[in-house]
Write a structure and sequence with these properties.
Layout (H helix, E strand, L loop, with lengths): L2 E11 L5 E11 L3 E5 L6 H8 L7 E6 L13 E4 L12 H11 L4 H14 L15 H14 L4 E5 L7 H13 L3 E6 L5 H4 L2 E5 L5 E6 H5 L2 H6 L6 H6 L12 H12 L1
Parallel strand pairs: 3-7, 3-8, 5-6, 6-7
Antiparallel strand pairs: 1-2, 1-4, 8-9
Protein name: Energy-coupling factor ABC transporter ATP-binding protein
Function: Probably part of an ABC transporter complex. Responsible for energy coupling to the transport system.
InterPro entries: AAA+_ATPase (IPR003593), ABC_transporter-like_ATP-bd (IPR003439), ABC_transporter-like_CS (IPR017871), ABC_transpr_CbiO/EcfA_su (IPR015856), ECF_ABC_transporter_ATP-bd (IPR050095), P-loop_NTPase (IPR027417)
C-alpha cells in the first residue's frame, strides 16, 4: 500500500509574515492511523488545511494517492473536518448538510438515505435533522459536522479536534465511528488522552511549525521530555504510571489502565 498523502518541504506563511508551518515532509500510507499533535498555536490546523488542499502552501508540494498534486481532483476522496463546525455547516437543515456529500458523489438516493440515517442515529442527530444548523448547540454542531464528513465515506479522514464541545457519551461514539472507518485516518489534536485509542503513529509539530518527532504511539507518548519540550503533557495514564512501570508496560489508554488495576487488585 502506497502513500495517500505525501508532503515534501511544505511551508505556509500568512500575509502578515507569520510562518505557521515550515519545511514539513510527511507521508501517510493507505490505511494508516496517524495522530498529529502539538501545542495550541503550533500550526496543526494550518498543516491540516495544507494537507487537505484548502490553503496554498508558500513552498513545497502535496501529492495525493501517488496520482496528482491537485487536491480538487480528489476532493471526493478527502474528508476534511475543520476545527470550527460552523465552517462545515452551510445548508438550510442538518439533513441537507448530511446529504450534501453523498449527493455530490452521485450516491443513489437509497444508499444516501441509509448512510445518513446510520450516522445520524450513531451521533444522536435523529431529532435534529430538520433543524437549521444555527439553532444547534455547540456540541450538536460538532456532532453534525462529524456526521457530514462521515456520511460520504471518504478514503481519507483529516479531522481537526473532532471531540471538541461534546460530552463523554458522544465523544465515545465519535471515537468508535472514527476507529471503525475502513480508510485512512489523520487526527489533529492537542489532547493526548485520545491518541492511543485512534492512532498507531504520532507526528509531533513543534512550536516553530516544523516536525519535532515522528514515531510509534508508545515511543512518543511515553517520552515526557519530548512532549514537554513541545508544550504538551503526557496522557493522564502515562503520568499516573510513570515511575511505577517501565515505558514498555505503561498503559496508554483508560481501558488498558483499568484492566491493569483490576488484574493487580484481583
Amino acid at each position: 500500500m502506497g502513500p495517500v498523502i505525501e508532503a515534501r518541504g511544505l511551508t505556509h506563511a500568512y500575509p502578515d509574515g507569520t510562518t505557521a508551518i515550515q519545511d514539513v515532509t510527511v507521508s501517510i500510507d493507505e490505511g494508516e492511523r496517524v495522530a498529529v499533535i502539538g501545542a495550541n498555536g503550533s500550526g496543526k490546523s494550518t498543516l491540516q488545511l495544507a494537507l487537505g488542499g484548502l490553503v496554498e502552501p508558500t513552498a513545497g508540494t502535496v501529492r495525493y494517492f501517488d496520482e496528482t498534486t491537485d487536491a480538487e481532483a480528489v476532493r471526493d476522496r478527502l474528508g476534511v473536518l475543520l476545527q470550527d463546525p460552523d465552517d462545515y455547516l452551510f445548508n438550510t437543515t442538518v439533513r441537507e448538510d448530511l446529504e450534501y456529500g453523498p449527493a455530490q458523489l452521485g450516491m443513489s438516493r437509497e444508499a444516501a438515505t441509509q448512510r445518513v440515517a446510520h450516522v445520524a442515529a450513531e451521533l444522536g442527530l435523529d431529532a435534529l435533522l430538520d433543524r437549521p444548523p444555527f439553532r444547534l448547540s455547540g456540541g450538536e454542531k460538532q456532532r453534525a459536522a462529524v456526521a457530514s464528513v462521515l456520511a460520504f465515506e471518504p478514503d481519507v479522514l483529516l479531522l481537526d479536534e473532532p471531540f471538541g464541545a461534546v460530552d463523554a457519551h458522544y465523544r465515545d461514539r465519535i471515537l468508535k465511528l472514527v476507529t471503525d472507518h475502513e480508510g485512512t485516518v489523520v487526527l489533529f489534536t492537542p489532547s493526548l488522552d485520545v491518541v492511543a485509542d485512534v492512532a498507531d503513529r504520532v507526528i509531533v509539530v513543534g512550536p516553530d511549525g516544523s516536525i519535532a518527532a515522528d514515531g510509534s504511539v508508545r515511543d512518543v507518548l511515553t517520552d515526557s521530555t519530548l512532549l514537554q519540550a513541545n508544550g504538551l503533557r503526557p496522557p493522564a495514564t502515562v503520568t499516573l504510571f510513570e515511575g511505577i512501570l517501565d515505558a514498555d508496560d505503561v498503559p496508554l489508554t483508560v481501558s488498558d489502565a483499568r484492566a491493569y488495576l483490576l488484574d493487580e487488585l484481583g
